[in-house]
Amino acid sequence: xxxxxxxxxxxxxxxxxxxxxxxxxxxxxxxxxxxxxxxxxxxxxxxxxxxxxxxxxxxxxxxxxxxxxxxxxxxxxxxxxxxxxxxxxxxxxxxxxxxxxxxxxxxxxxxxxxxxxxxxxxxxxxxxxxxxxxxxxxxxxxxxxxxxxxxxxxxxxxxxxxxxxxxxxxxxxxxxxxxxxxxxxxxxxxxxxxxxxxxxxxxxxxxxxxxxxxxxxxxxxxxxxxxxxxxxxxxxxxxxxxxxxxxxxxxxxxxxxxxxxxxxxxxxxxxxxxxxxxxxxxxxxxxxxxxxxxxxxxxxxxxxxxxxxxxxxxxxxxxxxxxxxxxxxxxxxxxxxxxxxxxxxxxxxxxxxxxxxxxxxxxxxxxxxxxxxxxxxxxxxxxxxxxxxxxxxxxxxxxxxxxxxxxxxxxxxxxxxxxxxxxxxxxxxxxxxxxxxx
Length: 438
Prior knowledge:
With 438 residues, this protein is mainly alpha-helical. The protein has helices at residues 11-33, 36-40, 53-64, 79-88, 93-129, 149-158, 161-168, 173-188, 192-206, 213-219, 226-252, 256-267, 278-283, 290-299, 305-311, 316-330, 336-343, 359-383, 388-422; strands spanning 427-428, 431-432. Helix content is 66%, strand content 1%. The radius of gyration is 22 Å and the shape is globular.
């Protein structure tokens, strides 16, 4: 697998990509062989009721014995996913492990090419507007030959500890990330049909990628015909979604699966602790407030879509990154595999690093909470010397760090845009000025 580079045909670029790929494969294979898979699959930060491989195995077991896996509260995968996993489980454990590793490599390669194209689109957009920019802006403008963004994105994904753990634990997030990566690549290529089809498949699997239809509609609009593009995008997306639901109905002979899949995601009946914000609040919630707060929590990630689309309609890569980050933070059953996906996209914003304000603090918080989380879980569940408040404090700090990271990127982009238009000199009456977001 070769990551996207400025000159992918050059021997040094090819060898760098192959070395990173080989290292990623070796780490995963070693962890599988060393028996980490079993212990990691028990971690609540990695496996959730939605993506747990053990629940998949149990669901397939029930299906093979002519029992509906959707009768109880164990299996929450889609019917098409059930057929796919039934096929995978016919293979030997070694082959199954290779499938998960291969999916990670494909995802890294796909993201590499997608982000490489996204970066080139940012460069081309700046080149079209260069006459509007300040004379000093040339010092900070993007250059298509400056950096191999695609290579670094692919390396960031394949060597990301969150992604590695998610792969070794054999969570279905591995397949979700692959579908999202293909969606982003189709979006980068401005293919409405492919983008809508894979966005529908991602939504069919985990619901929240529904919000990606907004950047798809914007990026595929031609000659400012946004309304027409939105209608076409909505029609193709709806048709693809209806087809997937129809196939699911044919496979199961009914609609009972909806309650076990989307009903579980939306109603949040399983309050198993995870890195998200839902489980603790709903554990403490009075029953008569449950519906109200469920609606509030579920609407929360979607209310940001339109304002962000209005502000970053000319920066689809940033809009897509922002929506992926919001999904990972505010979905009902998040895992570190979701976090690792959007963290791998950060190299695209390398040019914004000088404008970051909280990168060191965010990095420290994410590192500390990643270490403390399993420790406090052990103290709570096994030692009994802590309680749920200790574990939730780490998840809350982790979510806060992610929010700070996202706002840092967005504010850095706002400052970068200001400098492009007004120059890099912020001196006012001979004194250094400061940008303030109002």
